[in-house]
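Title: Prediction job returns without error message
Component: structure pipeline
Severity: low
Priority: P3
Assignee: unassigned

Description:
Job completed but the reporter wants confirmation the result is attached to the right record. Sequence as submitted:
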Amino acid sequence: MVSRVVLCAALVAALCVTAVAAELQATVPSGELEVLLRPGSSRALVRDIRSIEYSSEEKSVVFSYGAAKVVEETIRLLPPEGLTVARAFRPAGKTHCLVWKLEGQARPGAPTVLSYEVEGLKWRTCYRLKYEPDPQTANCGRSSIEADIEITNETGLDLMKAGFALRLDERDALADLCVRGKEVNLAMGWTRRWRLERRGEPEYVVADIPTHVWHIYDPRVYAKDVHKLLLLMAPPGSPQRLWLEGLPGGELEVFLAGAGDVPSTLPDVVTSWRAQEGPADLGGVEAKCWLQLDAGVERAVRVEPTMLSVTKEKVNFDRLGRVCGMDIVERHRLEIFNRTAEDLNMAVFQELLPKWELEVTQPEAARSQADDEAEEKKNAPLWSSVLEARMSGSVEFTLTKHQGSNE
């Protein structure tokens, strides 16, 4: 008997099971088709798992893949328990075909597995971060992340009734993310999008991430506006940290909820996953976060800068009586307004170039090692604290800019 298993509707690839040299052909029932994607690659591993009833006489398996983008050196046949591969070869004149001669007696019900890698599965991940504030404060809450995957099939194969999975870690520290639904169809040339899920976690790929919220005034980075930052506080070694680090990059939509807010179908912010990674420098406040996300401008919090005075001090002259150096001393005031109904974490920064000196005169603040490190980064914290609801505050500071021989 000769049997044929069709791997795709276009008959681009086919698996044939033969017993002796008979011409009769019959369809073998389809089995499981698994497709495993890997980060950073359009190459995927395909595993075709079939339950085949072999005859007791001569047996062979034929794999014909036509013009499909199969990586030939990766083709492997794992015969069922009780059978072994006696010989594998390509038939004369057939470059896209492999034949395996088998011997032995198969155990009833044992599967036959054909695996190979295929090029042309282009994909990208997209994320939705949903932030829920703590009922008691606007300065912290929990974030959870949903993930979608969009796949374009340019393999030359129809991948029908397949199970897709995304391999995050080759060391198996993390389980694969699976496309929701055990059997999905992706015909040649199609692009489709599905929800990704963890086994046992059907809604979120990462859930309940502790999140702090800070409002930042930093003219060097954000010009005149105050920006709202979300700091995802996943500690090293935690399961949440492992999952966050394992997710590939992609577009990130951020949905912010507040007390009494109606969930929106439109994101508050669209940014990039893993846009900023590492510790957050918030005016000397220790905030060792894994991911820092800019949630956009907070219009209800304003900072109004005022130049109080500019003077020239320590003017020096060269031997010809020309000015060769001086200090330009600027006195500044920042008025900070919180027009929200919530107490907010607030941090204020000032650009600090080499040869500039900064002194905060109001409120009094001790300079710390964190401040010195910030100066080397051309950015210095002026003030950080909780700004009470519907209240204002002020920061006064002096910038001394050394010129010429005073540098």
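Comment from assignee: result matches the submitted record. Residues 151 and 192 are 6 Å apart (CA to CA).
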